[in-house]
C-alpha cells in the first residue's frame, strides 16, 4: 500500500512523463524547447527513483518532507526552466529592438521633410539595457543554484544545510522576481508599437512564464523555511506539505510546460511583421495618403493634356466600288 506522498509522486511522474514526451517530439522543429524537455525527463526519472526506493515499505516512520524534491533536486533543476525562459526573453528583446529600429529607419525615409535638414542622430544600440540585465540575472541564478548544491553535499550539520539551502532559494526568488519586473516593464513599454500588438502569443508566453516561475520559486522558498522552523521534521503534517508542494511548486511548473506546447517557435518571438496599414506623419503634407493623391492627380492631368493635344491621323479611305468596265472585263 502506497503512502500519500508516494501517491503524489506517482501523479508527478505521470504528468512530467507526458509533457516530456510531447516536448521531445516538438524539439524537432523548435530546438529551443530542449531545456524544458530535459527538465521534464529529469523530474520523471527522479520521481521514478523515489518510487523505486519504497521508503514506506522499508521504514516504519519516514521523514517525507526531507525526501521532497523542492528541497533537493528542484533548486538545481529549475536552472533548466529559467534558462529556457531567459532564452525566449533574450530573443524577444533582441527581435523587438531590431523591429523598432527598422520601423523608425524606414518610416523616416518617407515621413521626413526633404526640404529641411535634420540633425544626424546616433543609432540606437541593438541590445538595450534589459538584455544585459537578463543575462546578469541568469548568471546570478545559476551561481546560487550551484551554491545550494554545494551546501547540501558538503555541509556536515543538518542545521547548516537547512538554513543555507533556504537562504539560497530565497536569494534565487529575489533574482527571479527582479527579472519578472524587468520583462513586464519592457513589454509594457513596447506595447504601443503596432507590430508588437499583433503578436499576442509571444507576449503571452513572455509575460506569463516568468510569473509562473516566480510562484514556483516562492513555493520552494516557503517549503524550505517551513522545514527549517520545525525542530522535528516528523511533526510536519504530510497532508499540508503535499498540498503546498502541489499548488505552489508543481502546478506552476506544469503550467509552464503547457505554455511551451502552446507557443510557436521561440526563435521567432518578437520578429517583425509586415505593416499593412499606412504610416502616419506629423506633417500631413508628406504622409503616404497625401503623396499618393498628389501623384494620382498629376498623372490624371497629364493624361488629359495628352488626350486634348493629341493629333489624330487621317480617317481610313472610304469604300469605293469597282468600275463597271473593270467588272465586265473580268467576267469576259
UniProtKB/TrEMBL annotation:
It comes from the Eukaryota. This is G-protein coupled receptors family 1 profile domain-containing protein. The chain crosses the membrane at residues 6-25, 32-52, 72-93, 131-157, 163-182, 203-226, 238-261. The keyword Ligase does not apply. Keywords: Membrane, Transmembrane, Transmembrane helix.
